[in-house]
């Protein structure tokens, strides 16, 4: 890829990231909670999750708008599953 094309791609990616940040910031707390509950239910009902003894899980943090994963973590600990949290 040429330098011009690479530069244009970087600009386009930056614009897309900026737009996504704006959209995510506009999600209400209630909607985030609703979506998080749905994701948690789907994960906990998943046959692979149920049969797993070791699971990797990203933890949700308040500074970021993401799926709230604490309910999944609580269930993992109650079920004596090993939890791996990626370091980044």
Automatic annotation (TrEMBL):
Cellular compartments per GO CC: mitochondrion
GO biological process, any: folic acid-containing compound biosynthetic process
One annotated GO molecular function: ATP binding
Top enzyme category: ligase
Lineage: superkingdom: Eukaryota
EC number: 6.3.3.2
Catalytic function, reaction form: (6S)-5-formyl-5,6,7,8-tetrahydrofolate + ATP = (6R)-5,10-methenyltetrahydrofolate + ADP + phosphate
Alphabetized UniProt keyword annotations: ATP-binding, Nucleotide-binding
Family statement: Belongs to the 5-formyltetrahydrofolate cyclo-ligase family.
Name of the protein described by the UniProt record: 5-formyltetrahydrofolate cyclo-ligase
The organism of origin for this protein: Araneus ventricosus (Orbweaver spider)
């Amino acid at each position: 890829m040429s330098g011009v094309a690479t530069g244009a791609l970087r600009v386009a990616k930056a614009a897309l990231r900026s737009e996504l940040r704006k959209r995510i910031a506009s999600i209400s707390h209630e909607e985030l909670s609703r979506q998080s509950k749905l994701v948690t239910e789907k994960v906990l009902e998943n046959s692979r999750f149920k049969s797993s003894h070791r699971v990797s899980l990203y933890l949700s943090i308040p500074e970021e708008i993401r799926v709230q994963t604490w309910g999944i973590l609580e269930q993992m600990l109650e079920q004596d599953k090993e939890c791996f949290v990626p370091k980044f």
